[in-house]
Design a protein that fits this description.
Chains A, B, C, D: Keywords: DNA-binding, Transcription, Transcription regulation. Chains A, B, C, D: It holds the Pfam family TetR_C_43. The structure is a homotetramer of 189-residue chains. Chain A is mainly α and 189 residues long. The first copy, chain A, folds into 2 domains: 55 residues, Homeodomain-like (Arc Repressor Mutant, subunit A, Orthogonal Bundle), CATH 1.10.10; 130 residues, Tetracycline Repressor, domain 2 (Orthogonal Bundle), CATH 1.10.357.10. The first copy, chain A, is built from 9 helices and no strands. Chain A starts with 6 loop residues before the first helix and ends with a helix. Chains in contact: A-B, C-D. At the A-B interface, α8 and α9 of A face α6, α8 and α9 of B. Chain B binds a DNA duplex (21 and 21 nucleotides) through α1 and α3.
Chain lengths: 189, 189, 189, 189
Amino acid sequence: MPEPVGVRQAQAQRTRSGVLSAASAVFVDQGVQAPIRDIAERAGVGVGTIYRNFPTRADLVTAVYRHQIDTCTALAPRLLEESASPFTALTRWADAFVEFLVTKHGLSAALGSGDPGLEKLHALMLDTLVPACATLLDACADADELSPGITAYTLMRAIGNLCITGPDYDRDDAEHMVATLLAGCRREA
Amino acid sequence: MPEPVGVRQAQAQRTRSGVLSAASAVFVDQGVQAPIRDIAERAGVGVGTIYRNFPTRADLVTAVYRHQIDTCTALAPRLLEESASPFTALTRWADAFVEFLVTKHGLSAALGSGDPGLEKLHALMLDTLVPACATLLDACADADELSPGITAYTLMRAIGNLCITGPDYDRDDAEHMVATLLAGCRREA
Amino acid sequence: MPEPVGVRQAQAQRTRSGVLSAASAVFVDQGVQAPIRDIAERAGVGVGTIYRNFPTRADLVTAVYRHQIDTCTALAPRLLEESASPFTALTRWADAFVEFLVTKHGLSAALGSGDPGLEKLHALMLDTLVPACATLLDACADADELSPGITAYTLMRAIGNLCITGPDYDRDDAEHMVATLLAGCRREA
Amino acid sequence: MPEPVGVRQAQAQRTRSGVLSAASAVFVDQGVQAPIRDIAERAGVGVGTIYRNFPTRADLVTAVYRHQIDTCTALAPRLLEESASPFTALTRWADAFVEFLVTKHGLSAALGSGDPGLEKLHALMLDTLVPACATLLDACADADELSPGITAYTLMRAIGNLCITGPDYDRDDAEHMVATLLAGCRREA
DNA sequence: TATGAATGAGGCTTCATTCAT
DNA sequence: AATGAATGAAGCCTCATTCAT
């Protein structure tokens, strides 16, 4: 009896999704350096399955955050349309980015760690988020709302760093400091 | 025959200094989580010597940065006297802090890591750098040069985070972003 | 294609048994404090395998002796049935216990060491051997063959201690002293 | 000015005594395997001083217990004179030996451990205590009060083992079991 | 494909012992 | 004779990674 085409693939896809969900949760709890075994246990799979799907830790980290990064990227053009001014759009977009980062504690630290294994995640950001941010910055520049010399990559990296929270520097502090940084980016009239 | 006073102490002190130098260098290369053995090898001592002098890793990290932190702390009142305005003093002091941080890559990451073992270093900063910074901020506030709601601890933590450098976000970028953050802290006339 | 059920479990079980055999042998040679690595080498496995199967040293020690302890426990009621008098049964049972102990040098020393990590083994004895011994003592008491004040736990501990052998105090000496102790336990007519 | 003869030696002797006192106390707390450094700290001397006076751990252990062993040895002939019967003398002497052992927790375990480094202590016992005990046993045998086959060394070793106390087998239990063992040694009339 | 047992490198820490002063 | 800083071997334990089933 021939098995229906794609059943196997569907199952494999479900396994993959389960791993990603588990990894996401474990990263929040323990950071991106969490033991692979912990993720496997949370996902209810063997460690071999994780290695099959994500040969390196960086592959896993990247996959975990890819969807949210894509969502964030897609937000930029929409905000630009909807907002009263380009700088307002930039501010709102930064809010969304911060929202993303502060709920994924491990991510900011990971991005800031310089870990060479995370180059793929780095590349993902360069490829998607940075251009999105650049669009916003260009619009601000066109509207004469931006101090000179601010580049998308540097700004995003700075925002990312400001989102590394801890016991005495929480989400509110991060939001406050990002808002302050953006205020400093605004060209004085 | 009395042995020359302090000969052994002097030798021990030299050993201790050598360990601190080695640790400082290794921290720059590998971060504060570097294996103790690597530090011992760089210092040319056995691991036992490191454990004797610095029972915990946090003790070592703290000792490595204590001197520079103290220097930075002492700078604040001097700048306040010498500078044309309190905000200028704050800016210069931030420059010095950044200078310190970006040459000690490991430190910023350590401060941002939330590692519970580094509470001593954290406490050291709270006890010395934060009050120094608070003095500057108070002066700025008295001169009506500061946006409301900026606290010394949060600002320092933010500056610290902005100084977590990497391949595509270097010292110049950190300085730029810190300057931008401070610009955002300045009350608009 | 379903993999033959239990093939891997069987292999794992064999590994586990091999570890237990190796541990048993190493304990005789070196005592229960022997390095884990030595046991791993004797078993032909990596240290990780031992830690996987027996997370703590006490787990390993307990497992090593559990089977023999159970055997010894099961012997008590049988001897009570078969023997001419309860005291004879007690004597025979003590012989079996001694037989067990003197061939497992490490065990007696372990029981006498007060090592807090060996509470599990201690508990195992309390839970199984002591009740078995108590049955025999009760029968002796009922037959008026026992001096008053002898409790199962104390007696077993004493027997255990008497079985700590060494170069000049061997198995025969232990048997002799245990027999002498039991003679002292017998109520004088 | 010539220093009075013997001042140095007297000082050295005082150092030695201090080390022995400290070691005795530490052995009670931690057993005879206590770190040398702990003993040095308790004695207020450097570890080198301990190594100078007692090159091996066994030397130290032996020295610590020598005095008490000698006292115990000297007791035997006195008890033999004073007591109504040789067996009474033996019983009393055993009481004294138990008293010594149960207050020196580490010792019994040490004697039973088979540690080859403790051969000196072992030898000390063979050389002094065993002959003393043998005198008592001989007297008992002459008075027809002793079961045949009981040798001094084996009996002492057995008593020593019975004195290995722990949480659920205390001094009273040890005394009880030693008394029971001796009862078993008594020739039935 | 999925599994998870097994491996063993690698980091941590303690402490016996040496030796220059 | 006394000191105690320094050494480094030795044990512990974790976890990334492989591979037979």
